Every structure is written in structure tokens, then in C-alpha cells.
């Protein structure tokens, strides 16, 4: 049996140290990537708001509570067995208005390609100083058996998410 020289032992130690360094670099790169993704994560949520006295005001809000912008890719409204490729404002004018003769609605459209900055909130549909119409909108948007708005959006790194319904956590789409 041949004895190993000190050169051979040093070579093996150098290879092991190199492999350890390579593992550390790969691990740190993975951590840096996760940190970059998290540092621009959008977090869209939809909420009801009733800021007026005696039910005079109703607002259906979209908020980006994340730390990065959200790029809107698709907006859908689920109502009954149907899915409308509309935003809440367009749905209100096409479906709710003819059924309930609602008036005094103010709104903001959200369409494909729109950017929602971090910390931004948007009043999707609302009624102010009108308890009758506020009650109609509240019935459509706030009750559990009514409509459900779904927004598909992306982060700056192209990760897709779906925010669906009132006060629900966004779900990552793979």
C-alpha cells in the first residue's frame, strides 16, 4: 500500500474547501434572489368601506399593501354561474345599473396593463351621500352570495398572483 504524500492531502483539502465555498455561494445567491423578489412584492386586497353616517356612503376599494408595484393582467367579475371579463365599474354599468336603476356611482377603471403602485388605494366603485344607492352597491359587493371580483396581477419579476374577493389573501399562480 502506497503512503499518501502531504501534497496529495493538501490537494484533497483544497478540493473540499472549494466545494464548501461553491455550496456557500449557491446558497447565498438563492437567499439574495429571494430577498430581491420579496423587496418588490405587491399585495393586492379588496375591501368594503362605509365611511358615511347612516349608510350614506359605500366604497369598494382596491389596495396595494405590498412593497412593490402590481401590474394588472386581467380583471374578472364572478356573478352567479357567469364570469365577466370586466372591472367592477364596467360590471356596475352593464349589469347592476339595468337591474337596480342605480345612480350617483363614482368609479375608477382598472384594466389590463394598469400599474398599481405600492401603498396606493383605488376606489373601484362607490356612492356618496345617497343611502338608497349605497345600500344597493353594498348588497351587490359586500354580501357573501353576491359578486366576487378577481384580479390577476404580476410583480416586476413576472410572478403572477390572484386576488379574489373581499379581505382574502392573494394566491400565487404557478
Describe this structure in words.
The chain has 174 residues and is an alpha+beta fold. It folds into two domains: 1-38; 44-173, no CATH class. It is built from three helices and ten strands; from the N terminus they run H-E-E-E-E-H-E-E-E-H-E-E-E. Strand 3 and strand 4 (82-84) form a beta hairpin. It has helices spanning 6-38, 88-100, 131-142; strands at residues 44-49, 58-64, 70-79, 82-84, 105-107, 115-116, 121-127, 148-154, 160-164, 171-173.
| Class inferred from helices and paired strands | alpha+beta
Given the C-alpha coordinates, what overall shape results? Answer: rod-shaped
Can you tell me the number of structural domains? 2
Strand content: 25-35%
Strand tally is 10
Distance between the termini: 57 Å
Overall residue-averaged pLDDT value: 89
Query: What is the N-to-C order of secondary-structure elements (H for helix, E for strand)?
Result: HEEEEHEEEHEEE
Poorly predicted regions: none
Q: Could you estimate the helical fraction of the residues in percent?
A: 25-40%
What is the number of helices?
A: 3
Give the biggest sheet: 6 strands, antiparallel
What is the rounded Rg? 26 Å
